[in-house]
Amino acid sequence: MWDAHRKHFGKDGDPILVWQAATREMNSSVPQSFINTHMAEDPARAQAEYLAQFRSDVEGFVPPEVVEACVGDFREMSPMTGFDYSGFVDPSGGSDAAMTLAIGHKTTTSEKHIVIDLIREVRPPFDPVAVVDNFAAIGSETITGTSRHNGSFCKAATIWKPSISGIIKSSKITDPPAYAE
């Protein structure tokens, strides 16, 4: 969104329309009291969510120039020959938290940088079996690690078996091999 806004917002004659409007400007049926409640609880989040303002409370954490240098002009990188890829999953049972997948590789330089080639997120509610099938179809044949903090998913971890050979139960994960020194 930030990239589209930066490239196209307010540009006369641009074939891509990007607009920025607060929730109540777009949907006046949303009660102002609802927005006020969220503003009182978490102003930075509510300004981004309901007032269409980009977050400024976290921009000091990593300067925008550093993020842009890391991301480059690509969104996803296709697999390349000569690299071993690892998939990392933060699973969820599908009702409260998102389920995410990242696929990456180590560079062949002496520094051995980690490159994240693909990131996917599915927000709840969702069917975890369908998401696992989808993630497996993306090509993540080597799931090397999962979060230890996903109780409902870990209880049903066997849903990976039809899609991916060999489950590594999260209770046994320490560090995924890509991050091992």
Verbal overview:
A four-stranded mixed sheet has the order 3-2-1-4, covered by helices on one side. The protein is built from seven helices and four strands. It is extended. With 181 residues, it is α+β, with helices and mostly antiparallel strands.
Which SSEs are present, and which pair or pack?
Elements: H1 2-8, H2 23-26, H3 32-41, H4 43-50, H5 64-71, E1 85-90, E2 99-106, E3 114-122, H6 128-138, E4 143-146, H7 151-155
Parallel strand pairs: 1-4
Antiparallel strand pairs: 1-2, 2-3
Helix pairs in contact: 3-4
Nearest-angstrom radius of gyration?
20 Å
Helix content: 25-40%
Mean pLDDT value:
74
- The H/E string reads HHHHHEEEHEH
**Biggest sheet, spatial arrangement of strands:** 3-2-1-4
When the domains are counted, the total is 2
What is the CATH architecture assignment of the largest domain?
A: 2-Layer Sandwich
* DSSP strand content: 5-15%
Number of helical stretches of at least 4 residues? 7
Question: Shape from CA axes?
Answer: extended
Largest sheet, described in full? 4 strands, mixed
Low-confidence stretches: 140-159, 161-181
Q: According to CATH, what is the topology of the largest domain? A: Nucleotidyltransferase, domain 5
Structural class estimated from helices and strands: alpha+beta
Q: CATH class of the largest domain, anyone? A: Alpha Beta
Number of strands: 4
End-to-end CA span: 36 Å
